[in-house]
Amino acid sequence: MTTILFATGNAGKIREIREILNDPGIRVYSLKEAGVEAEIEENGTTFEENALLKAQQVAGWCRTHELPGLPDCNGKELTVLADDSGLVIDYLGGEPGIYSARYMGRETSYREKNANLISRLEGVPKVERTARFACAIAAVFPDGSHAVTTGTVEGYIGWQESGENGFGYDPIFYLFENDRSTASLPMDEKNAISHRGRALRKMREILEEKGRQR
Fold first, then answer.
1. Which one in 22, 76, 134, 207 has a CA-CA gap of 20 to 30 Å to 28?
2. Could you give the residue numbers annotated as active site?
3. What pTM was computed for the model?
4. What is the tens place of the pLDDT at every residue in 20-49?
5. Structural domain of residue 23, as residue ranges?
6. Which residues are paired to 137 by β-bridges?
């Protein structure tokens, strides 16, 4: 059994992660569930750097603190995963990019963030509204080694929010092939094509290989 601590407190994200990593040999816990109170700094310049920074900081904290939510697991035995992901809009020079979660302030609702981005693209034709979701997943393993995987999904920014199945920027990110937002897709369909799904499936292969080596 592989115990994974995923460095997130986002309920929507941890639900996606569990569905994508669906494996009887893998248990996934969030920071809140494990009782982790590590302070995390994201001062990298790329998604990959930030994901690895988060994973390393959380892994370091776990090695020196008790984990009340994981009484049967020593922090030194954990595999820690972290992601950094965001929306990259070509017309806006790559914004919000690595600042996606902090765009307009962390306390600002995504409804407000989405409305602001749509307003900044007012009058811009569909062909110039290209964008992508990008995700980097970093793992720090019990032996101290690490790995990083990435995934992207291409699309465009719509003219209004649509859909109830996603979170964050999902309601304004549309796919060219069906002109539907990722928030409009059934969860299994979204996970099959999402940036996080693609990065996580690559990471699952690495986790499985690590498991075979034990």
1. 134
2. 84
3. 0.90
4. 888 777 889 999 998 888 888 889 999 999
5. 2-213
6. 83, 149
